[in-house]
Amino acid sequence: MSTTPKSDTIAAAEVLVTSPGRNFVTLKITTTEGLVGWGDATLNGRELAVASYLRDHVAPLLIGRDPARIEDTWQYLYRGVYWRRGPVTMTSIGAVDMALWDIKGKTTGQPVYQLLGGAVRDRILTYTHATGWDLPQLLESVDARREEGFRAVRAQSGVPGLDTVYGVSRSGRGYEPAGRGAAPAEEVWDTDAYLRHAPKVLTAVRDHVGPELKLLHDAHHRLTPGQAARLGRALEDVDLFWLEDVTPAENQQVLRHVRQHTTVPLAIGEVFNTVWECQSLITEQLIDFVRTCVSHAGGISHLRRIAALAEIWQIRLGPHGPSDVSPVALAASLHVGLATPNFAIQEYMGYEPLVHEVFGHAWSYADGHLHPGDRPGLGVEVDETLAARFPYEPAYLPVARRRDGSMTDW
Ligand code: KDG
Ligand code: MG
Predict the structure, then answer these.
(1) Which CATH code is given to the segment(s) 115-376?
(2) Helices 254-261 and 225-234, interaxial angle, to 10°?
(3) The Mandelate racemase/muconate lactonizing enzyme C-terminal domain covers which part of the protein (predicted)?
(4) By alpha-carbon position, which residue is closest to atom 9 of ligand 1?
(5) Domain chopping of the chain, boundaries
(6) 220 catalytic per annotation
(7) Is the pLDDT of residue 107 over 60?
(8) HEC states along 288-312?
(9) Helix 87-108 to helix 299-312 angle, to the nearest 10 degrees?
(10) Is the CB–ligand 1 distance for residue 346 below 6 Å?
(11) Tens digit of each residue's pLDDT (9 = 90 or more) over 295-352
């Protein structure tokens, strides 16, 4: 039975593209009763493709539909479309799904986590990023994160002999994953140099912080299975919370080899878009944490499905949360996190102050943890007037080439 009055239907679905320091795509769904739901549709470096998918192919289909029928709308946009799956499609469906959950929360006067069964925990453990070009700078960055209260920190460092490393600024300051400009910056990457260096740096970080701080590290998909197995073994004494994205996303069976050689906990999935891409990694227990993001993997409804499959296999969720996942999606992820038993940790890279102004939110950070807040719906309201002052600017993640000029994997 519908929770909204029969007369309430979707009256408008608009796409906002704004760039308050970086690009965000946001879906706004308005009902005939005047309720507004927000969804994040940001796909880093491919923002306008999702904006067009939503504007040109999804918004017209939403008009007149019952906003309460979230699952039916998900099925309609997924099963009803011949060209299913893929990041553009799934990010678009995710935005619609989030916006409809937001509306259902506002209709019922409940925060979304209550509609998902209520809280199973009081707050959500979060990890943030520490970066340093060299070891002293990295330790300083880790200490600064600890002073902010974080109990889990992802540590990334420079590599001797390379001029740039993705995600690590030479100044020691934070980074923005996408650089502005008409084309991606090009970096030179050397996996052998990285493999010689990373275990030494991470061991030194563990020695510095002691046993309790949870340490994480991201290999950004750049290793072969053999290299991944060697790195995992070399890091076993560091006692990582997880080692992330060791090998490229497509060839999942290679993780069997990695698993046979190391017990280092593996986290994968930030570039996956459906439960089907997670299926063998989960059912063969080839990973410990699934990283699918609420915005890129079909929204709240689909992330819950991934969580349900993972729960059976004792695999936990640690969703993606860099600065290119907007505060709307972060809110959605936190509502899922509060209500989902096998949700382990939420990545929280943080945002520039202007982003917090454009996306006013009920979620809050304190003492190494996040909470979605108790406002009805997702608890995020977008300042459209402020957003309109920052039009889209082309921006891309960098690409990396090996020393011989050939492309590496992302
Ligand atoms: O758009 C993806 C990037 O933000 C990427 O750097 C994120 O690897 C990432 C992470 O773990 O946050
Ligand atoms: Mg990552």
Answers:
(1) 3.20.20.120
(2) 20
(3) 135-265
(4) 322
(5) 115-376
(6) yes
(7) yes
(8) CEECCCCCCCCHHHHHHHHHHHHHH
(9) 100
(10) no
(11) 999 999 999 999 999 999 999 999 999 999 999 999 999 999 999 999 999 999 999 9
